[in-house]
Design goal:
Pfam families: YgjP-like (PF01863). InterPro entries: UTP_pyrophosphatase-like, YgjP-like_metallopeptidase. It comes from Candidatus Paenalcaligenes intestinipullorum. This is M48 family metallopeptidase. Residues 41-257 form the YgjP-like metallopeptidase domain. This protein has 269 residues and is α/β, with parallel strands linked by helices. The chain contains 6 helices and 12 strands. It has helices spanning 62-71, 73-95, 146-174, 213-225, 234-243, 248-255; strands spanning 5-7, 19-26, 29-37, 44-48, 51-56, 102-105, 108-114, 122-123, 135-138, 183-187, 194-196, 201-205. Strands 1, 2, 3, 4 and 5 form a 5-stranded mixed β-sheet that branches. The chain has a 4-stranded mixed β-sheet with strand order 6-7-9-8, with helices on one face. The protein has a 3-stranded mixed β-sheet with strand order 10-12-11, with helices on one face.
Length: 269
């Protein structure tokens, strides 16, 4: 029997008089949540700092509540995982920009090491094939300010993004059957991974260099597909599938992350 999927936050230290901590095992799905009784007529679901808050009328039976939770399983799972990831990003941001901090390169966490005597930034591995043993060496003292460390790291990553992304842009442009491709550029938008305009100019977010190669390939294939279809209709997605048949998994991975935050990967890929 497979291990149940757990989506349980620690039980709160204190609860209001109309609240209780509940745990359910629903079809191999373990869920912990705060149940709040209310005079509302329907069941409400909300994610807050304690995890999942379920508001339900006092007359609702346990079976009826379980039915609602099972019906909303996908939303609960997706939303809770996104919330947990945002919290992890906040935590990561507090201790990341320092000696021995970690930053993902092509989906693999590499370590930052600070050495004041170094002449310039250097990388111990192969950028196109990083491993978890690789180090990004920065010419800074261990006591350097976090903002200075971040600035050095991001400047290095942008240079790598320019080279690495260009390889895949040229690959997919060669497969293009739409309007002529004009050029592509690197940018730093907070809300978009990429874009393609009617003039055939493609924009790509430099932060894509943090993701596994398949995600980068998907974004580029997506934008190249817009050279043929400037929409997101069936013909567009057919073009994406032609360029990259196995695009759904990297697309789903990308949707879990915001362009405004550094992505988190729990293990090397």
């Amino acid at each position: 029997m497979s291990k149940p999927v757990a989506l349980s936050f620690p039980a709160p230290k204190s609860l209001a008089g109309n609240e209780q901590w509940c745990e359910r095992h629903l079809a191999g799905w373990k869920l912990g949540f705060v149940l709040r009784h209310s005079h509302r007529k329907t069941v409400g679901l909300r994610i807050n700092e304690q995890g999942l808050l379920v508001t339900a009328p006092p007359w609702l039976s346990e079976q009826q509540l379980d039915d609602v939770l099972l019906a909303k399983q996908q939303w609960i799972t997706t939303t809770l995982q996104a919330w947990q990831q945002r919290q992890a990003q906040v935590s990561l941001g507090q201790n990341q920009w320092q000696d021995k901090g970690q930053v993902p390169l092509l989906g693999v966490n590499i370590e930052l090491r600070l050495h004041a005597a170094l002449p310039k930034v250097s990388f111990t591995g192969c950028v196109a094939q990083p491993t978890s043993h690789d180090r990004l060496l920065l010419p800074l003292p261990v006591s350097a300010d976090s903002s200075l460390i971040q600035d050095h790291v991001e400047r290095w990553f942008k240079v790598q993004a320019q080279t690495y992304l260009d390889t895949w842009v040229q690959h997919y442009v060669q497969l293009n059957r739409g309007r002529p491709f004009s050029r592509w550029r690197l940018a730093s938008p907070k809300k978009r991974w990429g874009s393609c305009n009617s003039a055939g100019v493609i924009m790509l977010n430099w932060r894509l260099i943090h993701f596994p190669p398949a995600v980068i390939q998907y974004v580029i294939a997506h934008e190249v597909a817009h050279l043929k279809e400037m929409n997101h209709g069936p013909k567009f997605w057919a073009e994406v599938a032609r360029l990259m048949p196995d695009f759904d998994a990297p697309r789903q991975l990308l949707r879990q992350h915001s362009p405004g935050h550094l992505p988190i990967f729990t293990s090397p890929t």
